[in-house]
UniProtKB/TrEMBL annotation:
Keywords: Signal
PANTHER family: LEUCINE-SPECIFIC-BINDING PROTEIN, PERIPLASMIC BINDING PROTEIN OF ABC TRANSPORTER FOR NATURAL AMINO ACIDS
Domain of life: Bacteria
Protein's UniProt keywords contain Signal: yes
InterPro entries in alphabetical order: BCAA_transport, Leu-bd, Peripla_BP_I
Entry protein name: Branched-chain amino acid transport system substrate-binding protein
One Pfam assignment: Peripla_BP_6
Sequence ranges assigned to domain Leucine-binding protein in this UniProt record: 36-378
Length: 392
């Protein structure tokens, strides 16, 4: 599909936000004459977070496919780098992309990697539009933007909900991996639930933070958390660790489980099957959201990849969308600093998650949704239950 046909199709569907991001035939410089640009995509290419990295790659690539492989009218060369799983490997990925002259960076799954590359990105003065990792400790940044969330928001959204849903005599066991993001989730959850509420007064049980656990990795910690007979479990896992944690938890606990939505996203849900039934999660996206932008995105994603899109894919699609608009605003020969300034001027984004915009800390002000894993025929699905809050 050429660019003009794509614009006609999207305009007919009413996706004004997408059209605005594509530029127009009235631009001062014809987009056909614009020079190629390089964008650096940083994702894990092995290990327990690889599936998340694949979703991020797919989401960004889909936006390019629907926009004639251009951003802001410029043909795009997408360069990829493996973030690994440490600050050191993440920095090596960023350094390699910067040496190749990228106009902007995107991606990043692991919060430890995001924290580790912060200074490198800021000193290079090249914008990074992160599409997953977003620890709350990442403050006072100028060149780092995020199209995902801040981790404490997932805890806050569920804290409000469970505060009202849990019986007066209920008790929540909080189980988290000992990593960079977990304290954010716990803090947000306790702030909204009520820090002194006796229903969440037990200490957090922290587990091994490995992203590739074995079949008994979490058993001892689960036993410890369940010793006080909780009525519900609140947890925070993703990728392969989520699969193993839930399998091991379900061997000993049949009660309600609540978590940020990463617990049941993508290949995790496929792997968990019956073990996932009834789990309720909070997330900034659900594939069954009924808006025009999501219908276009989810339909195109399913057609291209034969799977349901995840929040990771959606946030990466939006990262491409905000880059498209910022590069368009920056003009015919943009440099990284001009693109970074333009990111602050793009306003509202017409996204598959619903309308959102960047706030002062360069993260989204957006809606959060409650989802529940239910059976859809023979397939497990995260079904949208209701809207929880607008945060950010």
């Amino acid at each position: 599909m050429n660019r003009r046909r794509a614009l006609q199709l999207l305009a007919a569907l009413g996706t004004t936000g997408f059209v605005a991001g594509c530029g127009s035939d009235t631009d001062s410089e014809p987009t056909a004459n614009r020079s190629p640009i390089k964008i650096g995509l940083i994702t894990p290419q092995a290990g327990g977070f690889k599936s998340i990295g694949d979703d991020i790659t797919n989401g960004f690539q889909l936006f390019l496919d629907l926009h004639d492989k251009r951003l802001g009218g410029h043909p795009v060369e997408l360069l990829t780098a493996d973030e690994g799983d440490t600050a050191k490997t993440g920095k090596a990925a960023v350094d390699g992309l910067l040496k190749q002259g990228v106009l902007a960076l995107t991606g990043v799954v692991n919060s430890a990697v995001m924290v580790g590359i912060r200074d490198t990105v800021e000193q290079a003065r090249v914008p990074l539009i992160g599409s997953n990792a977003s620890p709350s400790s990442l403050q006072s940044v100028f060149y780092i933007w995020r199209t995902s969330y801040v981790l404490d928001e997932a805890g806050r959204a569920l804290g409000r909900y469970l505060r009202d849903q849990l019986p007066a005599n209920g008790r929540v066991a909080i189980i988290m991996p000992e990593n960079v993001g977990s304290p954010d989730v716990v803090r947000g959850f306790r702030q909204e639930f009520g820090a002194t509420d006796p229903r969440i007064s037990d200490p957090v049980t922290y587990t091994n933070a490995t992203t590739s656990p074995g079949k008994t990795t979490f058993s001892a910690d689960i036993n410890k958390a369940l010793a006080k007979k909780p009525t519900a479990v609140f947890c925070f896992f993703a990728g392969s660790a989520a699969v193993e944690f839930i399998k091991q938890l379900r061997e000993k606990f049949s009660g309600p489980i609540y978590a940020p939505g990463f617990l049941t996203e993508g290949t995790v849900l496929e792997s968990l099957k019956e073990n996932a039934l009834g789990i309720q999660t909070a997330l900034n996206y659900s594939a069954d959201l009924n808006n025009t932008s999501n219908r276009v995105f989810a339909s195109a994603y399913r057609k291209k990849y034969q799977v349901t899109p995840t929040t990771y894919a959606m946030a990466s699609y939006d990262a491409a969308q905000v880059l498209d608009q910022a590069i368009q605003l920056a003009g015919g020969s943009p440099n990284p600093q001009q693109v970074n300034l333009a990111l602050g001027k793009i306003g509202q984004i017409d996204s598959p998650r619903g309308i959102w915009q960047f706030n002062q800390p360069r993260t989204p002000q957006q809606k959060w949704y409650l989802r529940e894993v239910q059976r859809d025929g023979q397939v497990m699905s995260n079904v949208l239950i209701n809207e929880l809050a607008t945060l950010g």
